[in-house]
Prior knowledge:
Blueprint: E1 9-12, H1 18-29, E2 33-38, H2 41-50, E3 55-58, H3 64-78, E4 83-86, H4 102-129, E5 133-138, H5 151-171, E6 176-183, H6 189-202, H7 206-215, H8 225-236, E7 246-250
Amino acid sequence: MEISTAGLRVLVTGAASGIGRKTAEAFAASGAGVMICDVSQEHLAGFAADNPSIGTIEADVSDPAAVARMFDATVARLGGLDVLVNNAGITGPTGGVETLSVEDWERTLAVDITGMFCCTRLAVPFLKQAGGGSIINLSSAAGRLPYAWRTPYAAAKWAVVGFTLSLALELGPSNIRCNALQPGHVTGERHDRNSRNRAALLGVSFEELEDAARSRVAMRRFIEPEEVAAMAVFLASDLGRSISGQAIGICGYLQHFGQ
């Protein structure tokens, strides 16, 4: 079965690399018109060179003024909006709660949950104007499991689920579906960086930490970003028209993070 998103107008935040990039490219490949944002000029330039059909804009989702400019540019390019993928996020600090600064805590929540709110509040009027649509929010397995040494990130990702399910109830009468994706360990540079930081904190090697992490996944493997992208496309397509209010794990059944 081939999934089509032809005719859909899609905005993916934080999408010049990683899961966001694969998601934007998957939507474009299945027929959608796509716009992305990111904070990295370098990553945006590389993305634009590889994907000339996809619009790009620099924007920090935690800055309401930047988000407003992003929506102006998106609607000008696409003519409206049918799908919002709130992917932008940061990993936040790794460390014991007593070692973390208030600034690190606030910055993590500002990007990972307040930024999602800033984008959603502007997207909803356009989705209603379109007669409905889909909002897909990136949570994490850290939004259903405890995650020691990463409390700001875990707090934000649990908040994403509450935000998403509340939106699903609020916006369902307007034919707007709202779902959260909860990836587990996703391969890539960000995963490697976080694992190295965690390994250093716990006094183990990177390889030991990775082996232990795989042992806690029922399928004994990590997830590829393309797998997360495929679920986003499915949910936004007509095949996902009755799916709303769900927090969907894409993790190979990760059971716990351990210490």
